[in-house]
Amino acid sequence: MYLKSQKSSYKRFYRLFIKRHFFGITSPLRVLPDFFVIGAGRTGTTSLYHYLDQHPSLSKSAYDELGFFDVNFHLGLNWYRSLFPSVFTKFRIKLKTDFFMTYDVTPSYVRRPWIAKRIKKLFPKSKLIIVLRNPVDRTYSHYHLHRKFGETRTFEEFIKNEIDDVSKWDVELKDDNYFATKVENSSLARAFYAEQLPIWFEQFSKNQILIISSENLASNTRKTMNEIFSFLNLPEYDVPNIEKVNVSKKSKMNSKTREILLEFFKPYNEQLYDFLNKKFDWEK
Predict the structure, then answer these.
(1) 180 Cβ partners below 8 Å, 6+ apart?
(2) Does residue 62 have a cis bond before it (omega within 30 degrees)?
(3) What confidence score (pLDDT) does residue 3 get?
(4) Residue 175 and residue 182: Cα distance in Å, rounded?
(5) 16, 79 in Cβ contact below 8 A?
(6) Predicted local distance difference test score (pLDDT) of residue 16
(7) CA-CA distance, 108 to 37, in Å (whole number)?
(8) ω before 40 within 30° of 0 (cis)?
(9) 259 pLDDT more than 50
(10) Model's pTM, two decimal places?
(11) Residue 222 lies in a domain
């Protein structure tokens, strides 16, 4: 037990003062996030991370996908602080614009329910932004991410295997273990949004959560960004650079495969529409 504690302390020291160096040393003089972009993955959150930083009153974290409330939670709040702007940056920006906010963009948060409780405990008044994308397109994008890491199956083979796997699930209790194993390892289940959102609405009030569509973010970027700024109680601002970030080139999906996926996701999307009392244009 003592050796384990020693090892944990050393890891914290190494990640804070060796890896983060100056930023780690100055962590007590740094702020913590005011809001979170919690997901979903493959929806344009990396682009959103950069769009947000263009607002005069916003200052980004060191990078996106910090993962503090998940894989890096053991590193502690000092490490987390080292990733954010200093109090002097906050003072300078607030002096100039009357507002200041910083943020954490980690798209894996939304599909991990235990994180909702962690954020609620530490940041009960924070606001949350969730980007949702047509599950068909999100799955295709996720497949191409797999390709970068050695996936050799065709998309059709990949989808068939995934659908066969999900069809065998017999899970009544959608607990942390379900999300950590089943959902985490399934490209399809990562787009079962109606399963992922309830815990966030249980922990946070509706006026703390903004849900936008990836499609609107991509096609009506400046309008969508101003919806976000309004939600954050910030002045309107037309983001000058709306170039998309982290976009991979891919061929058009086979129409028959698309029809299969549209049919597969239809009941899951209907559950989402009922939950949100809002419908997205995802039927094509």
Answers:
(1) 112
(2) no
(3) 41
(4) 10
(5) yes
(6) 74
(7) 10
(8) yes
(9) yes
(10) 0.93
(11) yes
The model's pLDDT over 4-31, given as tens digits with 9 standing for 90+, comes to 455 566 566 667 767 787 898 999 999 9
91: phi then psi, degrees, rounded to nearest 5: -60, -45
Domain containing residue 211: CATH number: 3.40.50.300
**How many C-beta atoms lie closer than 10 Å to residue 121's C-beta?**
9
Q: Which whole-number Å values give the CA distances from 60 to 32, 115, 206, in the listed order?
A: 11, 21, 25
Note whether residue 263 is domain-resident.
Answer: yes
Total domains in the chain come to 1
Task: State percent of the chain over pLDDT 70.
Answer: 95
Q: Which amino acid belongs to residue 150?
A: G
Q: Contact at 8 Å (CB) between 76 and 9?
A: no
Token reading at 28? 């007590």
Buried b (16+ CB within 10 A) or exposed e, 129-167: bbbbbbbbbbbbbbbeeeeeeeeeeebeebbeebeeeee
Q: Which amino acid is at 60?
A: K
Which residues form the domain of 261?
Answer: 2-276
What is the arithmetic mean of pLDDT over 166-188? Answer: 95
- Cα dist. 40→54, 193, 226 in Å? 22, 9, 20
* Separation in Å, CA 156 to CA 141, 227, 254, 257: 14, 37, 9, 7
The Cα 73–Cα 243 span in angstroms is 32
Residue 282 belongs to a domain: no
- Looking at the domain assignment, is residue 283 inside a domain? no
Query: What confidence tens digit (pLDDT) does each residue in 111-159 have?
Result: 999 999 999 999 999 999 999 999 999 999 999 999 999 999 999 999 9
DSSP state of 43: S
pLDDT band at 174 (very low <50, low <70, confident <90, very high): very high
For CA atoms 91, 93, 95, 99, give the dihedral sign.
negative
Length of the chain: 284
